[in-house]
Amino acid sequence: MKTLSTRLALCGVLALAALPLTAPTAQADAHARAADPLSRFHSQRLDWKSCVTGPDDTTGKELERAGATCADVTVPLDYTNPGGRTIKVALSRIRATDTAHRVGPLLLNGGGPGGATIGDPPWIRGALKEVAGRYDIVGVDPRFVGRSTPLDCEWPTGTSLWGAGARFERAAAFARDLAERCRRNAGDVIPYATTRNTARDMDVIRAALGERKISYLGYSYGSYLGEVYATMFPRRVERMTLDGVIDPADYSPRLLRPMESANRAALEDWAAWAASRHAEFGLGASRDAVLKTVTGVYEASSRAPLAVGPYRVDDRAVPVILFSGLSQDNDQAYGEFSRAIRDLARAAQGRPVEPSPALAQTLRFVLTGEDSSYGSVQSAILCGDVAGPRDPEVYRRDIEEGRRTDPLLAPLTRNISPCAFWDAPREAPTRVRGDFPALLVSATGDPRTIHAGALAQRRNWPSSRLVTLEGPAQHAVFGVYGNECADDQVRAYFATGRLPAGDVTCRP
Questions:
Q1: 438 CA to centre of own chain
Q2: Helix (H, G, I), strand (E, B), or coil: what is residue 308?
Q3: Of the four, 185, 200, 230, 271, which is 20 to 30 A from 352 by CA?
Q4: pLDDT tens-digit profile of 183-215?
Q5: Using one digit for the tens of pLDDT, what is the confidence trace for 15-39?
Q6: Helix axis angle, 4-17 relative to 26-35, nearest 10°?
Q7: How do the domains of the chain map onto residue ranges?
Q8: For residues 420, 195, 257 and 487, what is the CA-based torsion angle, rounded to 10 degrees?
Q9: What are the b/e assignments for 406-428, b being 16+ CB within 10 Å?
């Protein structure tokens, strides 16, 4: 499907290629603008400078140590009105060192939606090893995220993800309030926080970098962004790897609903791990005993909020804590999650508790407005991309049905969100194109972007190839989990541009 922006981008290349060698006349300028309304964005010069914004900027200092520099790209707020208001999108870049074999820029997206990616080039360079030298590795904070003209609805929380708790009416009122805060505090930009506009920004970045094509590495939500970009600008992609793959048919504000069984399996895997370390964590000597401890925490929180340091944790927050602890399958992540559950279990017994560092960070995110911007932009994108059901009764009935099979997680994955009270999206959702030769990566136990999504997208894109990591409940594989089989496949593809002859299965 050819979109308006696709046609404009193609016109832009022709216009840039035909620029005269002499100074343009006003009439020539007018012709150029008519041929490509985005010409001033495509031809902008970037001012590369230090990434450090101040003495406490740890991300900037890490980028500087890695040899990165940073720049801002100017993009239209509204691509239907490119002569109107503009915003800034922030980039970081580590230049290619193997210039004889340089492929071009590799743009990154670490997921979310709402996740900042400007700090990611150093660790991606490490994961790519010697292949990294062939690319300019570019971290991008998408529009309204991090350093890119941040959007903030001034929420009392960093997330719209909550358990329904005992009273659905309370959950619905909270979701309505979050939507109204966005309308009141960020209504002038909320309509333009969409995946399609982020993809358009990526193509402006490509042109501003002076490149005919870009390569791309996207994790989690970044896989959907990659799918959209490859659909809107198929001729602009050199090489693309999507890790933690979303089936575009499932992408909506209710994206988490199909993930209940995978999250339950991840919870049970962790419980078995914690049971084998009962002497250290004291959560139970068997998997079932650990799960009983978790259920006891939830039931206690439904009777009265648990006092955990300065925080009060009720039955709406406990499922969020459980969900947030179930994305990484390794001893460190499992240990942090076990300490968090131990703290909650002690609080459920009425004992004084100071939360562990990991739990304290989660509670600040969930129960304070410290990260309001993250939840704000995440909801803005999800609600702005695809409309959710508007009738609260749809969610109420769904939650009650889910409680019968999973009383812990179903009230969260099926809960009402601000999208039920959001203004309608301005554009129809992207119909992802029928085929594209990308490398897809997925773990079979992934509790966030379930493996079924990767299998579906592999069928959607027959020219793609799928690297499957068998077993772990792991979200994001390349450079994260430490599986050399999977990592080597990604490195080989980025080195040569050649996909494997067939799908590849790796084992831990």
A1: 19
A2: strand
A3: 271
A4: 999 999 999 999 999 999 999 999 999 999 999
A5: 222 222 334 444 544 554 567 899 9
A6: 140
A7: 1-43
A8: -160
A9: bebbbbbbbbbbbbbbbeebeee
